[in-house]
Amino acid sequence: MKNLIIYILLTCSISFSCRNNTKNQPPQVEKPINEQFYTSDFSDNFNVELEVKVSKDDVFSVFYLTDSFEKYFIGEQAIGVSVKGSETIQNIRIELPKDTIPTRLRIDFGNNSEQKNIELIAIKFIFEDKNLIISDSIFSKYFEPNINVEPEEYTKIIRLKADAEGKYDPYIIGRVWLNRKLENLTNY
User: How far apart are CA 21 and CA 75, in angstroms?
Assistant: First the structure.
């Protein structure tokens, strides 16, 4: 009988001491990386969120293609949002229409020609419970700027300028690498 009591006590103490005790462990710190997927609580629609500092009022737009064979971005497949100028970083979220799965994207940085610079920290692509974050250090891998956009090397600053003919239409278009990431993000 004494052996049985010792056996039960020993078994109980081992099972309680071997369980996963997370109360005494320090919290896990997620290391920042330049590109990552993570879950969120946004809507099921595809969203593009810009973390940016914009000093003047403007309108930012996202143009999208939903078919791999489409070649040109058109106004019917664009969503614009008014941006209030501020010296602080703001998150500008543009939600695409319901059931829209983009295969290619173009991000327009407004039409206010007085806007000379913006500070672009990150671009987030959000779909259902998954997100993809592209930070400033790898923009050139994923985006091709047009002639009106001049990223400053090693900074978050993007210079916006008119072309030689005075036309002002600054935008970036997703490269093949971004298109592949978007496909991974939207496939189940």
Answer: 56
Structure confidence by residue, pLDDT tens digits, 14-36:
544 444 444 444 343 333 333 33
User: In CATH, what number is assigned to the domain containing residue 62?
Assistant: 2.60.60.40
Query: Do residues 86 and 115 make contact, with C-beta atoms less than 8 angstroms apart?
Result: no
CA dihedral 111, 113, 114, 119 (to 10 degrees): 60
Residue ranges making up the domain that contains 79: 35-186
For the chain, how are helix, strand and coil distributed in percent, rounded to 5? 20, 35, 45
**What residue type is 14 in one-letter code?**
I
Q: φ and ψ at 72, to 5 degrees?
A: -120, 140
Entry pTM: 0.75
